[in-house]
């Protein structure tokens, strides 16, 4: 029922009901669409703030996406009704809204398109969704085939939700000159000053067709009639009524009447999206349907091809072949795609959280280093002269800090050296450290290394009298907003992370010749680690923080929120945990936080408000930050495990991020393994019946950290100043693995094999032993053969 296609370009689902929320997503730098296997859609575009063109039935908040999306009958969707004109039988593709079970069904999520194939009563419907490279619109193909041996008379009705557009003004009608339906609205406003903002918005939604329809309907209520959306009254007539919407909810429904010979097929193409004016819509129609080149290819075909090429540019820098075929599929095809989406679009916001922006571009360091470089410089240009980083990075002149970015958090500085280190590992571009960048306000400039010096010094300064980092209204955990809002509470995690940031920056400083700076920050890391052990070690694990009232939390005496994952993983990274503490905290994580679906963020989940911790305790137990398998935090911990050589535990937890391989596990999670979600439900011991469910949110800082786990940990192919350090940590059950690695313009074919008689890892470059396992003097454009011999170990099952 669930499988990768033979060419691994698609992941396929053969039932619309076994995973009813299974989905895929497409994007360009102006829009995103999240398509459900049953035809429901969540789409958004930028103008420059996020906006809709396919609306829910009532007013909705302008939020990007919701976890565990609650689909419902009138949820925005893209459907095709099919009616047999001889007997009146009705079904719909891809499944909603008629829900007539198909004879055959395939939902295929591809990298640059999504394809459904539905067969029912001898009629096949193939629906294909793609996007253009640059514009906010959907490109649809609908192919109809008569599979039966007799001539068939049918009508198909492409049905695209427009929905409740505006309480001020909304309407819709068919425009013959455009060969399409156009709905018009006015974005609601009340202050006259807002008129200047809304008058240029794309407040029209259009559906264009390459073939003129036999009829149409633009009034949703008239279309549904007494039958509702599952059995519309309008379909009982020979022809749709050609209605329009006048301050009524519009819909884009067209009718095509077909007489098909046995084996005959027809194809129809549609463009659906937002526009500012009918003139703009006419231009879109001309470019996509009417203008052809010398080869007879029109703009629609060119747009599909250019989009496929655009997506292909996000190729990862490793391609693997291991004993785990499902991991291979994720790493080779889907993980870099998800990472590319984050880095190219900035999650389709004009003010990404600083931590997200930096970590997403940490990922882009592997895919498009120049994009990452520019992003780091952009972020630093908005840093205060004090060293403080803003809560969000402004990416558009009309943007402002919104929502969570108006709440002060204290962790943003910590990500600068940590994320920049990956860029330096990949590129060896230490010249960036001398790049002159202005501070916020433009009154002062300084080299990048000075900016980061100030950022780390800011972390060391924003502390209480004990030397512990203030949390204010949150650190990496956004909703931990009441620990320190009165100015006294501190973060155990951030204090530990500050020690790690000091270590990372000390290493970078030393490698760039700034030895005195390196010494200063290395000493700060040691001192901070000592404070961590003095104030946060609880005997078996590290505490999460200390409240405004000087109450330590995340400790053994807490009934809820006894243990948090983040302090444990980062204590492995910072060196705060010695060998004895490592073993204790790892044992505690395994016993209290690990589930069949990964490692929980905290446990037990909070079941009631704890007013000295904050709104994280009000979230439903096992969701999001309140005890979910929050994959971003899990990735931190896995990276920490690799940092201390715990490769088997690291791989076990890494593998749990991916649904399957058992069908029961995939069904429990409810998603295809084409992206890593923000979280899976946790509270495994408290509410086991819902544990494991996917949030279906593909916006997550998890993916660059998973890529780092693969590069620096599992396959041990981390860049350094001298070249590529090869130090794999294959799980003990693997006897071999093959990796293609792109690195600084060179291409390496790497074979890793366990061999008896090998006492330590040996690395051979084109037959010659590489000293210390470092591949040096690699030339751009050249290909290399690398053999890695690993000491043989007992195979574990």
UniProtKB/TrEMBL annotation:
Q: Name one Pfam family in it.
A: GH94_b-supersand
Task: Provide the coiled-coil residue spans.
Answer: none
Alphabetized, the UniProt keywords read: Glycosyltransferase, Hydrolase, Transferase
Q: Which residues form the Glycosyl hydrolase 94 supersandwich domain?
A: 74-286
- Top-level taxonomic group: Bacteria
| GO MF annotation list | hydrolase activity
InterPro entries noted in UniProt? 6-hairpin_glycosidase_sf, 6hp_glycosidase-like_sf, Gal_mutarotase_sf_dom, GH65_N, GH94_catalytic, GH94_Enzymes, GH94N_CBAP, Glyco_hydrolase_94_b-supersand
Cite the SUPFAM superfamilies for this sequence: Galactose mutarotase-like (SSF74650), Six-hairpin glycosidases (SSF48208)
Residue ranges occupied by any Glycosyl hydrolase 94 catalytic domain in the UniProt entry: 317-716
PANTHER family, alphabetically?
Answer: CELLOBIONIC ACID PHOSPHORYLASE, CELLOBIONIC ACID PHOSPHORYLASE-RELATED
What protein name is recorded for this chain?
GH36-type glycosyl hydrolase domain-containing protein
Organism, by scientific name, is: Paenibacillus rhizoplanae
Recall the taxonomic lineage recorded for the source organism: Bacteria, Bacillati, Bacillota, Bacilli, Bacillales
